[in-house]
Amino acid sequence: MAPSTLGPPSKHQLALMIWLAVFPTLLALNLILGDLLQGTTLVLRTFVLATIAVPIVIYGLMPRLHRARRRLLFKNAHLDT
């Protein structure tokens, strides 16, 4: 299967990719900003973290994970032939 004809990820693959992007991002942001946001309400803290995390995940990490998935599946397709 050529990378240009690779279909979109399955629901399970996408769920794993999202988890692989979101969990470490939120962990890092909590470690970096935890002290700064300590006195804020849960809603404000969540808003700040989500506002920072979503662009990191969508524009930074997900494209990399999609490329990694494509390379992995393309490599496995070559091994099967």
Describe the structure.
The longest helix has 39 residues, at 42-80. The protein is elongated. Helix 1 crosses helix 2 (42-80). The model has no long low-confidence stretch (mean pLDDT 91). By secondary structure, it is an all-alpha fold. Helix content is 77%, strand content 0%. The chain has one domain (10-80). The protein is built from 2 helices and no strands.
How is this fold's topology laid out?
Elements lengths: L10 H23 L8 H39 L1
- Beta strand count: 0
Compute the number of helices.
2
Biggest beta-sheet profile: none
* Rough outline: elongated
Could you report the average pLDDT, rounded to the nearest whole number? 91
| Share of residues in strands | under 5%
**How does the helix and strand content classify structurally?**
mainly alpha
Radius of gyration: 17 Å
Helix content: over 70%
N-to-C SSE series? HH
Q: How far apart are the first and last residues' alpha carbons, in Å? A: 10 Å
Name the poorly predicted regions: none
Q: How many structural domains can be distinguished in the coordinates?
A: 1
